[in-house]
Amino acid sequence: MDKTAEQAIHDKLWQIVSPLVGGAVYESRPMTEVGYPFADFEDFLSNFTGTKNGILERIAADINLWDVEDKRKDVSQAGGSLFTQAMQLKEAFGYKISMRVSDSKIRVIQDRTVSPPIWRCMVHLEFDT
Asked: Residue 113: left if φ>0, alpha if ψ -120 to 50, beta else—which one?
């Protein structure tokens, strides 16, 4: 396989997130002014468990969705859509995957460190490979 399981999941999530924010997806939080809505990938974490039949990998991904102060509903809907579509993933570039629903989370907060405040939806997704 050309990609690691972690990269394969990243790329599948990018495909899901991109239309939710009009293609404005970034590998990390932009340090310059960008338009809203947008998404950024925060962290990926891979944990490995050895078994007698090989290695099992659990991959966690943290993705942020951002929008302006009066678009809370849009941020919430985008986060819910990302969660639902990720839950339906069964394959990522040749890797069999399944989302660990009970370990995945959505959190919506208002970021008041900027003026005017903006909405941030933090989506934490965990997958088994």
From this structure: alpha
Annotate the chain with DSSP letters as a single string.
Answer: --S-HHHHHHHHHHHHHHHHTTT-EESS--SS---SSEEEEEEEEEEEEEETTEEEEEEEEEEEEEEETT-HHHHHHHHHHHHHHHHT--EETTEE-EE-GGG-EEEEEEE-SSSS-EEEEEEEEEEE-
Amino acid (one-letter) located at 13:
L
Residues near 7 by Cβ (< 8 Å), separated by ≥ 6? none
Cβ pair 50, 110 in contact under 8 A: no
pLDDT of res. 85: 98
* 66 — pLDDT class (breaks 50, 70, 90): very high
pLDDT tens-digit series, residues 41-54:
999 999 999 888 77
**Residue 64 structure tokens:** 């942020």
